[in-house]
UniProtKB/TrEMBL annotation:
Listed Pfam families: Glyco_hydro_92 (PF07971), Glyco_hydro_92N (PF17678), NPCBM_assoc (PF10633)
Protein name as annotated: GH92 family glycosyl hydrolase
EC number: 3.2.1.-
GO molecular function, one term: hydrolase activity, acting on glycosyl bonds
Organism: Actinophytocola gossypii
Length: 1392
């Protein structure tokens, strides 16, 4: 060889060929050889290795510069682009080795280059490690650069790649295997380690090589290599307890919205604790608290700016109620500037455990933290001989600080926050074991709570506690949790024991070190959340648990003093900090199986939110926030009730879920979105942002509520009347859960949203399931990932795809269609979930996002369970890698959600159908897993399971054959033995017709949810009192109807002479006094409207809440044409107030064959305008309807009646009437009602005639806007920043207004309060458009907001037509970046 490396065992250095010495990466064990490619560590460029045949080891790869065979290998300043790492540096130093080449051939190609000649003997424990960052072309979506590996050539002519050896992830350490494993992530550093001594002890390493081996081309190959280490005796930490395997920095090597490998922070805490304690690399951020690499300093070292008390549930919700502490050294008053006080460190100098965080900085200063529930002990070890200070600080000015140097006490308060609705003031109290020798405030140039204390000792201990009640309670919390004689080791050990008690529930055999780290670190994340929000106001012996109430939607904390909260203090234990959208699928079920007793307390702690504020928060941080879709605490807690989790108040739990599902919420922070309409439509219409996603979540939650109701009805001792109600509600919700069929578009073969009148979001010719968002239908998903969201009714879903085989085919296509991150749709640009999905390379499966977690398990519904086993095991192998360098997750971890999925999947169990009491069965990762459950140990054995043996061949449960793909919770919770037989090929296990999970829908049936027989043009409603009761059937619970008299009745006649078989009916209470609620009634049916049959009678019914919809079952339904609801006044009741009535059937609902549309017009008081009435025959027979036209009193219409003869199927006719407004008509819309009658049909159409003055102002989201909004093609409402609303449309979306121009108006102006990247078009017919305004520049956050005025005459001229109507369409001038047109108001002023 060219030169020989002299083995150096001193200080981790080595002599390089040519006599130069590299700057070696610091290591903790004995290092034989290493390089970080710093000055002097330069391998020869393009030196191709000699192959076993004596010829150059290269084929099909060319040097990018010279064109010679082989790779280019040069040292430079590192990658200039990386998803979550600092750029233009190496991994640990400032240099890295760049490899580059061109894979020229169309087939396989390879090249092996010599990096270094060495002379290193291999010992039994010798380990090779390195990091590599492959380049990636996002346009080409080419992963060629991941087919690389470091190799070793031995003096005996063999290579490491020839030997049977795997890296820490179980992947062979060959370039081809590394690439094909898909565990190397592009544009990210990837750590690899391999035990060389295991296969090559006694040999001598001759050369360090780099190999590229790609399966096909052509392709450009590019990447960077760093930190190659050969270590003879790598020092492994002692790991005797479960907590020893936890690494809390996992998930921190992320970049917020760019690319997530967890988006976590290293929280030191106790399980479900009140506080987190964490190092902070950006003390000014409430989002990313700790950046593993991206924020490194100019020396490429991470820096800590503070240690903090944190309460962050997610970077997307932000931190809150923070306090910061930062030790520093130096003479005089310390500098509190964040950059000045920041201290550099290396990750190998960190202790990152759940019970103990510690770090030694480059300057020798050390900090250690040990947690309790409400408190912590800090230990600061200062270098000798320098000034010793502790800076006290916080994020911003919403804080206070008091320093009492004489008593050695600091205290303060904090209201720091981002979205944290409901949050109240938090208080802090801290003491020190050393005298404060100097102190003061450092507010100048900092924050009002910035101060410092100084000491004259090298080691100082701080004891600190927090409280939501006040400073005195914080002091009490400190005294209760850390005794005066407690040492730092005592606090560490108590926290460690608490974690071991939780983590030790799972014990596994046959796991690698990496798998054990993943297992116990995932359990740590699972048990870290949710968090206690209560405190002991009593004594240790006689505790009294109370809490500051944070269950509200207020963005402003209640006024509080510097020492005591102004919030209400209530009894009980409350819990906060979880996003149910993320956690309900796997995290909560994992809790219920692994830790049922703590889980019961957690559930009741969230139900306490309902007791405190009337609702459970959809996303608790800590109060009420509806950040994502769904009220999925319904599913999570129903699952707990069905499984019999102890410690739950089932009545309150059910009441909270029932309220979510049946009561119109008071605001947008709680309850279900748009419930005032969607409850009656059966889906959330697409004029609501992510309305489709709200619909699907609603069906899942309805199924769970129904199951909970049934479980409660079966409980012994349930009173008969309550049992009847619960069973009615159980069936009602079970049928409601089949409503997903109503948002399945058969024309495209996928699910999507639709408008209130049934128009699909995207027409078939434009629909592409790869497009994310689909005009804001989908939440962080595309059509593919929303194609299987019916895990509660897999058979029903299969029927939509043609049966079980059709569902399997759909899943096959899903996994075979690659995600490219090139179809961002209504997101306007690539979001991190798209990149993460793409790079896992599991087809369209967006495994990094919770909404898709269940999808591979749907194969169990198809009698092809081996496919679920394959795809889940692939995800387990690819997604949870990189724990050694702060990665470890395939995307956002989110409160234990992704960890819970991994835990359950690795055990071979998954909670596919929540609240069914069952798990579906998969492929266990471990040869043996023992779950130490309260009911007995559950042993899951899978001898021989491996990456090669992933398929279940058979299963016995306690020795008995088990052929079903499901198993009950009771079977698991009581302990037992599940023994799997595993093999390398799919088997017939679980393929029987009856082996699939249960479903709501039977085989061969199509899902048949309940639909309302009533509604517009489905029939005619009248009241015995003669009052207008149409509001009872308008699918809107915001409208109320009052009936007077002792026994008023409402009669409904089904249109067209049809009959309807009503199985359920609902009554919705109004906002009126509860004494006006109906309590006694009779529902009757009739064929002829004369002879009536009693169908259902109720007495003593009550409505628990205002705006509540209650279902009632007809015990023996029959088909009738006429229905009558007779309200029975008792106790003198003569006024009845209702919001809505439904008659529900599972049969087809009659639809009118005639559509009547009244075109809106505008006119001034006392003037006349033509109104067009358009009739369209959508049926299959001739129609000859008689028409009557009704206008407001004092108005006139001519003609008021007429007839259209022989309207053929598919044809339309227009009738024009002249409407004259009253001279004193008030401004605003006035109804024009057209009624068409023929045969047994009565059909109406209603339009508005808008009375306008010279000036009309329209604000988005108001009834006035609804009157002129004629097309809403994917637009959404948002806040305007001043308490009102704005409408926006991005990407391909737009919204169109028909301007309310009064008849005869010829001149005037239109003024738009508009912003962002707007595109404004004008038209006089709504079809042919001309652009009149366009923002050409990239604009965000309404920075260009202003009033733009357009002349009406000019608009008409530009539109090229002098017609009366004028349309404005607002869209996106730059559809690629997601900041489309934004409108806060429109002002129309006419002068002619």
């Amino acid at each position: 060889m060219i030169g020989s490396l002299v083995l150096a065992l001193v200080a981790g250095s080595a002599t390089m060929p040519g006599g130069t010495a590299p700057t070696a990466r610091a290591t903790t064990g004995q290092t034989d050889w290493s390089t970080s490619f710093e000055d002097g560590a330069r391998p020869a460029d393009g030196q191709v290795a000699t192959g076993p045949d004596g010829r150059p080891d290269v084929a099909g790869v060319l040097h990018p510069d010279s064109g010679a065979p082989g790779l280019s290998t040069v040292v430079d300043d590192g990658p200039d682009r990386a998803y979550a790492a600092k750029t233009d540096v190496g991994f640990t130093g400032t240099r890295a080795l760049r490899y580059a080449g061109r894979h020229e051939s169309g087939g396989p190609a390879h090249s092996t280059n010599v990096l270094f000649d060495v002379d290193v003997p291999v010992r039994p424990e010798t380990e090779l490690s390195y990091v590599v960052l492959p380049w990636f072309d996002e346009e080409a979506v080419d992963y060629a650069s991941t087919h690389v590996a470091v190799d070793l050539a031995f003096t005996d002519g063999t290579r490491l790649s020839d030997l049977d050896v795997e890296d820490q992830n179980g992947v062979p350490i060959t370039a081809r295997a590394q690439g094909e494993s898909r565990t190397l992530y592009p544009l990210q550093w990837n750590h690899r380690s391999v035990s060389v001594g295991q296969v090559a002890a006694g040999r001598t390493i001759d050369q360090v090589l780099l190999t590229y081996d790609g399966p096909d081309g052509s392709a450009d190959v590019l990447g960077w290599l760093d930190d190659i280490v050969l270590e003879a005796e790598p020092r492994e930490p002692e790991r005797s307890r479960p907590s020893d395997w936890v690494v809390t920095t996992r998930g921190t090597h992320s970049n917020g919205g760019g690319y997530s490998r967890g988006n976590n922070f290293p929280a030191t805490a106790v399980p479900n604790g009140f506080n987190f304690w964490t190092p902070v690399t950006d003390a000014g951020s409430l989002a990313t608290l700790y950046s593993y690499h991206e924020a490194n300093n100019e020396r490429n070292l991470p820096e800590i700016e503070a240690f903090a008390a944190s309460h962050q549930p997610s970077i997307w919700l932000g931190d809150r109620q923070t306090f910061q502490f930062m030790p520093t050294v130096g003479e005089g008053v310390p500098d509190a500037d964040r950059d000045a006080r920041a201290l550099a460190f290396r990750h190998e100098d960190e202790t990152a455990s759940p019970h103990h965080y510690g770090v030694t900085f480059q300057n020798g200063l050390r900090t250690d933290i040990a947690p309790t529930d409400h408190a912590a002990m800090f230990r600061f070890t200062f270098p000798a001989g320098e000034g010793r200070h502790l800076i006290l600080d916080n994020i911003d000015e919403r804080t206070g600080l008091t320093i009492d140097a004489e008593k050695g006490v600091v205290s303060g308060w904090s209201e720091t926050r981002v979205i944290s609705t409901g949050m109240t003031r938090m208080y802090m109290y801290a003491t020190f074991d050393a005298e404060i020798v100097a102190s003061g405030m450092l507010t100048e140039g900092n924050r009002p709570s910035t101060g410092y204390v100084s000491f004259d000792r090298d080691v100082v201990t701080m004891r600190v506690a927090t409280s939501l009640i006040g400073v005195d309670q914080a002091k009490k919390n400190l005294e209760l949790e850390i005794a005066a004689d407690d040492s730092f080791a005592d606090v560490v050990e108590r926290a460690r024991t608490a974690w071991d008690d939780r983590l030790g529930v799972v014990e596994v055999d046959g796991a690698s070190d990496a798998q054990l780290t993943t297992l116990y670190s995932n359990l740590y994340r699972l048990f870290l959340y949710p968090n206690s929000g209560y405190e002991n106001t009593g004594t240790r012996e006689r505790p009294r648990y109370r809490h500051a109430v944070q269950s509200s939607d207020s963005f402003s904390p209640p006024p509080s003093s510097p020492t005591h909260t102004g919030a209400e203090i209530a009894d009980g234990k409350v819990y906060v900090n979880t996003g149910f959208w993320d956690t309900f699928r796997a995290a909560w079920p994992a809790y219920f199986l692994l830790a049922p007793e703590p889980a019961g307390e957690l559930v009741d702690g969230f139900v306490q939110q309902y007791r405190d504020g009337g609702w459970i928060s959809p996303w608790s941080s800590p109060g009420y926030a509806r950040v994502m879709t769904g009220t999925s605490s319904d599913s999570a807690f129903a699952d707990a009730v069905v499984k019999g989790v102890p410690g739950i108040d089932a009545e309150d739990t059910y009441a909270a879920a029932l309220k979510n599902a049946t009561v119109r919420p008071p605001n947008d922070s709680v309850g279900r979105s748009d419930l005032d309409r969607s409850l009656f439509l059966g889906y959330v219409p697409n004029d609501v942002s992510t309305g489709f996603a709200w619909s699907l979540d609603g069906y899942l939650n309805d199924f769970a509520i129904g199951a909970m109701a049934e479980a409660m009805a079966r409980r012994p001792g349930t009173p008969g009347r309550e049992r009847k109600r619960l069973r009615e509600e159980a069936e009602y919700f079970r049928l409601r859960s089949q409503g997903y069929v109503d948002v399945f578009d058969p024309a495209v073969g996928f699910f999507q949203g639709k408008s209130a009148d049934g128009v699909w979001t995207t027409p078939p010719e434009r629909y592409d399931p790869r497009v994310w968002g689909n005009d804001h239908d989908y939440t962080e998903a595309n059509g593919w990932n929303e194609a299987f969201t019916a895990p509660h009714d897999g058979q029903g879903l299969a029927e939509l795809y043609g049966g079980r085989a059709g569902l399997a085919d759909k899943l096959d296509e899903f996994f075979a269609t690659p995600e490219t991150a090139r179809f961002p749709g209504s997101y306007g640009g690539v979001i991190h979930e798209m990149r993460e999905t793409r790079d896992l390379r599991l087809g369209q499966w967006s495994m990094p996002n919770q909404v898709s977690h269940h999808i591979p398990w749907m194969y169990n519904y198809t009698q092809e369970p081996w496919k679920a086993q394959y795809h889940v095991r692939q995800a387990l192998a690819r997604g949870w890698v990189g724990s050694e360098i702060g990665q470890g997750y395939p995307g956002d971890e989110d409160n234990g959600a992704t960890s819970g999925w991994w835990i359950m999947s690795a055990l071979g169990l998954y909670p596919l159908q929540l609240a069914s009491g069952e798990y579906t069965i998969g492929s266990p990762l471990f040869e043996k897993a023992t779950l130490h459950l309260p009911g007995g140990s559950l042993v899951i054995e899978a001898p021989g399971t491996s990456d090669g043996n992933i398929y279940v061949q058979g299963l016995t449960v306690d020795g008995h054959p088990h052929t079903s793909t499901t198993i009950s919770h009771d079977e698991l919770a009581d302990g037992g033995v599940l023994r799997f037989t595993m093999g390398p090929e799919p088997s017939s296990w679980g393929t029987g017709a009856n082996a699939v999970p249960g479903s709501v829908t039977e085989v061969g049936d199509r899902p048949r949810p309940l639909h309302d027989v009533t509604g517009k043009n489905r029939g005619l409603v009248t009241a015995s009192t003669g009052e207008d009761v149409s509001g009872l059937l308008d699918d809107d619970s915001r409208t109320a109807t009052v009936l007077t008299g002792h026994h008023p009745s409402v009669r409904y006649t089904v249109n067209g002479g049809d009959r309807a078989r009503v199985e359920f009916y609902t009554i919705t209470s109004s906002q009126a006094d509860p004494r006006q609620d109906p309590g006694h009634w009779v529902l009757e049916g009739s064929d002829d409207g004369k002879r009536w049959q009693t169908l259902d009678r109720r007495n003593g019914e009550e409505f628990r809440w205002r705006d509540q919809t209650r279902p009632f079952k007809i015990r023996k339904p029959v088909s009738m044409r006429h229905y009558r609801l007779r309200l029975l006044g008792t106790g003198g009741q003569s006024t009845f107030s209702l919001a809505e009535v439904e008659l529900l059937t599972r049969d087809a609902v009659p639809e009118s064959p005639l559509r009547v549309r009244v075109d809106p017009v505008a006119l001034r008081p006392g003037t006349t305008a033509p109104v067009d009435v358009r009739l369209t025959n959508t049926g299959d027979t001739l129609l000859s309807p008689e028409l009557t036209v009704a206008v407001p009193a004092s108005w006139a219409v001519d003609p008021a009646a007429g007839m259209v003869s022989d309207l053929a199927p598919g044809d339309s006719a227009t009738v024009t009437v002249e409407v004259t407004a009253a001279a004193d008509a008030a401004p605003g819309p006035h109804p024009v009602l057209v009624t068409a009658r023929w045969d047994d049909w009565v059909v109406t159409g209603e339009g508005d005639v808008r009375v306008v003055g010279d000036v009309t102002e329209i604000e988005p989201g108001t009834p006035d806007e609804r009157d002129i909004l004629v097309a809403d093609d994917g637009s959404q409402l948002t806040g305007d920043g001043a308490g009102g609303q704005a409408r926006f449309a991005d990407a391909t979306g737009s919204f169109t207004y028909r301007l309310p121009l009064p008849a005869g108006a010829t001149s005037g102006t239109v003024t738009l309060d508009i912003a962002n990247e707007f595109l404004v078009d004008v038209s006089t017919d709504g079809r042919n458009w001309t652009t009149v305004l366009r923002e050409p520049n990239a604009v965000m956050f309404q920075s260009n907001r202003g009033q733009r005025t357009l002349d009406l005459a000019d608009l008409r001229e530009q539109a090229g037509d002098a017609g009366q109507e004028l349309y404005l369409r607002i869209g996106d001038s730059r559809p690629a970046d997601g900041w489309g047109g934004w409108l806060a108001g429109l002002r129309l002023e006419t002068t002619g």
